[in-house]
Amino acid sequence: MELQAIIEKAWEDRSLLQEKDVEIAIKSVISDLDAGKLRCAAPLADGTWQVNDWVKKAVILYFPIQKMHTIEVGPFEFHDKMALKTNYAKQGVRVVPHAVARYGAYLASGVVMMPSYVNIGAYVDSGTMVDTWATVGSCAQIGKNVHLSGGVGIGGVLEPVQAAPVIVEDGAFIGSRAIIVEGVHIGKEAVIGAGVTLTASSKIIDVTGAEPKTYQGYVPPRSVVIPGSITKKFPAGEYQVLQL
Question: Hey, which family's this protein in (predicted)?
């Protein structure tokens, strides 16, 4: 039986998690994620993205089959179900203390991790900088030569499994303390200003033309996004409400 079929079957019947072949299949998917052979979402030739929900299911099923264990790093101690990513030198990845990536996250050669965090299922492509205290959530897809500035929060999207993860395409710049969550898609070479928060419901208003154009959940390539506000009427009067 193929990996996908085993995962789908175990997803529907969690009692199968006790079986050895199911455990092997789940761990094989996580190993392939760690090596970049599988992705939770992948770009297609037409520029759209395909969510591999069966891979996300494997990530979710990985948690219950793992046992808690203690990880000792010098004087530091951690207690978790997940192993930490290793072999950075062999992979050509620069990792500054105290950066942490979980096993099952892919970091391509040339990635630089300042003290930051990358969660399981994430994919970070070559030449990308994950700056100090930035976090890359589970299954997030980060392209080549992206700069995630200090304190950036890239949200994780494991469930619902059909939901697209946060996607940041090649060459994008995400400003300090920006937050991008709920499957928002950042186009190539876009610039997100410091402190901007983008959710699936955020209204992103293009004011470069004669008439405003509103996007939600998507920032077009080479756009520059800064915080802004619009006037809204309430029973108590008119007030400025934060928009983007």
Answer: Belongs to the transferase hexapeptide repeat family.
Over residues 23-72, the pLDDT tens digits come to 999 999 999 999 999 999 999 999 899 999 999 999 999 999 999 999 98
Is the previous residue joined to 227 through a cis bond, with omega within 30 degrees of 0?
A: no
On whether the CB atoms of residues 204 and 214 are closer than 8 A, the answer is: yes
For the chain, domain boundaries: 3-232
d(CA 210, CA 152): 33
Judge whether 166 and 181 are in contact, CB under 8 Å: yes
Residues 6+ apart with CB under 8 A from 44: 50
Q: Which CATH architecture has domain 3-232?
A: 3 Solenoid (2.160)
pTM, entire model: 0.94
3-state SS of the chain is CCHHHHHHHHHHCHHHHHCHHHHHHHHHHHHHHHCCCCCCEEECCCCCEEECHHHHHHHHHHHHHCCCEEEEECCEEEEECCCECCCHHHHCCEECCCCEEECCCEECCCCEECCCEECCCCEECCCCEECCCCEECCCCEECCCCEECCCCEECCCCCCCCCCCCEECCCCEECCCCEECCCCEECCCCEECCCCEECCCCEEEECCCCCCEEEECEECCCCEECCEEEEEEECCEEEEEEEC
Residue 181: closest CA among 146, 154, 206, 212? 154
237 forms beta bridges with: 234
